[in-house]
Amino acid sequence: MFNGINVRSVFFRPARNILIITLSALVGFYAIRWLEKAQRMQIVDSNREVAQSISQEAGRFITQKLDVLQSLGVVLSDEGVSIELRKRLFALALHQNDYFLTVFAVDRNGLELFREDARAAFLTDLPRHNTKADFLTVKERGFYLSPVSVVEGRAFFSIGRAVKDDQGRFLGGIFARVDARVLHDIISQSSQEADSHTVYLVDQGSIVISHPDLSYVLREKSFAAFPAVRSQVYREDHDPLTSYVGYNGQSVLGVGAPVAFRASGLSESIDLSTKWFVIVEREVLPPALPGWFRQWVFWGVGLIWFFSFLSLGFSIRRARRMRSVS
């Protein structure tokens, strides 16, 4: 067919070399891709572990403080306990719980009975709560958890528990205002790898309620643009292996987890989610093979094949001419 041309030397050896070069390039390319994916999977798993740990710890804190209020409610429901003793017990609860700013009691009509304030502020006119969300929610659901608010440069949230008698009749509620710095402390204590992760909390409106940079909290900054936040708050699909640009301008991988709690004495049908979400981000190195380089790899392999077959064609024509001359 090739008129006496040495097919082995003209065709098979160059083809073998082309195949080796092509396979080497493709194996190297996919090996790097596999290593990149493995690295990202490891980061995502680590992020999930941290997010779950902090979510559980935050939920335990809410549970513990609601239990404290429930204990105070037992004192409030006991008519044999004097007002002075009740106030002393409330003062003790305030000072034994570092993050409590204020503790107060409300009767069944929404009238505030007394309060203890960490700032030692004395109120001559105790407010009525009969039309406020805290009282109405406690009366309906048995507990209350407010959004995080910022007042005079201080972030806080409120919790409350209903007080009922032995027949289950509503007697009022016990409430506490809690310093939101506790959320930052929970994050710091729960994350053993704080240096390699960025952890923050957002509420149901994507507003930052805890962050290493307190200014985001005080400015009530919205992080609704970040995919990890949107996946938790708005239930949008987000591939955790896909990086995005975080608040600091770095490429990060992020995951989230909702914060929930348990409280004794409440119906199982009641939603005990806090509407808070833990977001954990970690910076990810840029791909070892940038997008433009990956395109060049495919184009390069294609050009190698094109010019190799072109060269092979010229070699066969040249060999035929030499054969005819000889």
Give a short overview:
With 326 residues, the chain is of the alpha+beta class. It is built from 7 helices and 11 strands.
Instruction: Tell me, briefly, the overall form.
Output: rod-shaped
Low-confidence stretches: none
Roughly what is the average pLDDT, rounded to an integer?
80
The number of strands is: 11
Number of discrete domains: 2
Strand content range: 15-25%
Q: What's the tally of helices?
A: 7
Element-level helix/strand string: HHEEHEEEEHEEHHEEEH
CATH class of the largest domain: Alpha Beta
Report the end-to-end length measured between terminal Cα atoms: 18 Å
The CATH homologous superfamily of the largest domain is called PAS domain
Kindly provide the radius of gyration, computed on alpha-carbon positions and rounded to a whole number of angstroms: 33 Å
Q: What structural class do you assign from the helix and strand content?
A: alpha+beta
Helical percent range? 40-55%
CATH architecture label name of the largest domain: 2-Layer Sandwich
Largest sheet: 6 strands, antiparallel
- As for the CATH topology of the largest domain, it is Beta-Lactamase
